Amino acid sequence: MKKIGFTMFLFFAMFMFVFPQWGQAAAGGTSIYLDGKALELSKNGQVQNVNGNVMIPIRVVVEELGFDVDWEKETRTITIQQSNTELKLVVGQSTAMVNGTKIKLAVAPKLISDTTIVPLRFVGEQMGLKVNWNNEEKSAYLITPNSGSGNGTGSGENEGSGGNEGQEPGQVPDTSANLANVGGISFSDNRLMIAVDKNVKPSIFTMSGPDRIVIDLPNTKFADSFSNGQMLDPTLNGYIDVTEYPDLSKVRYALFSDKPSTIRIVLDMNYAKEYELINNNDGLIIVNLNTDASTPGTAPGGNGKKLVVIDAGHGGSDPGAISVTKKKEKDFNLAVVLKVQELLKQESDIDFVLTRSSDTYPTLQDRVKIANDLKADMFISVHANAGSATASGVETYYTRADSLPLAKVMHKYLVESSGLSDRSVRSKSLHVTRETKMPAVLLECGYLSNKNDNAKLYTEDFQNRVAEGIVKGIKEYLGVN
Questions:
Q1: Which of 2, 25, 85, 159 is 20 to 30 A from residue 216's alpha carbon, by CA?
Q2: How far, in Å, CA of 253 to CA of 241, rounded?
Q3: What pTM was estimated for this model as a whole?
Q4: With contact defined as beta carbons under 8 Å apart, do 16 and 22 qualify?
Q5: Element (H, E) at 345
Q6: In whole angstroms, what is the distance from residue 207 CA to residue 134 CA?
Q7: Cα–Cα distance between 150 and 156 in angstroms, integer?
């Protein structure tokens, strides 16, 4: 008996599942990770596309998982055996035997020169590894059962699905079930925040090689509006790149299972780190990385500090206003908010949360929900305006009377820091300033439709000054020195 690694079967099986029209390709353009370990692909491993089905020579697969493969030349039969599963495939025959039961194949195994190629989708479906394909990296992550460990400080259970990080692409949840909707996923201030509309009991555990924190949300599905604001491809996979925090590089999420319907979120860590799971059944699940084994973390604002929610308007599929030079308002808003974030990190008496820290679009309802669920002390939404070509200057909007004192303070510093004309504090019924339960304002930092304003808005100097003014206003209103 010759031993080969079944890993490669699953990798290319996944390719056929996600990209059924994929043609011939060499293995060298991709990477495969088995339980976090990068595998070296054989130079002889040439992938074949036979009638739209991906197949690979068995000799490409080498001893990784200890699957046994036997080739009987006279009958041209391939036997693949692992644990209690035995597969028998015969060259030229479109049926296979699985533990003695006949199974129909989409395409029969073929003999090319002296090499037998086998259909990977069938073999993959029969043999049990989990596969996650990262199209951006052109990498496959293969996870064996029970390879994970639950050594974090979170309170989630580690049994059951603990080790299988990879998701099966394209699964559709059981819509007849009473599932919780995941309306938004965001990462700011070194915290992952997940907005849900029903109580959810997360399971959280860690994996190594590479280091990851994995959160499973059973009995959940993505809300219908989720893909409007955040990346979610047709196979129900998405990610958020994280560049401003050293602990991790990316947040990935996907529909991991449909029995029960489970969303899995993976934090791709740069090193192992303790965490805290916070779930008060208030519609917001938090994984806090601002903690270690000796100093337990707390929810935002739960440490006695004043809590500010900073909102970068628009984002994702919503560009906001378009400037006279064809630039997008959403980019200005985020640039300023990220500068505010860096300044607030230096304030020991102020805690903060961003509604978005990258090019995503939380709905207006999600932005309000984050602030209300966290019981924030104040809410500030950052925008740029558009109107006539001659309109210029800054405005501050509020809705409820209790927000007027905040609006006056923030506007004073916005006028001072921007150097633009004062278009006054104004009252208007805006969703984020109306539905929030704390003092809330919306700042219009200049007119993109005005060539002079626009020329300033996208400069580092202007954005830095406005960010400094916002922080000064926050500190004055909160009475923080």
A1: 85
A2: 12
A3: 0.52
A4: yes
A5: none
A6: 18
A7: 9
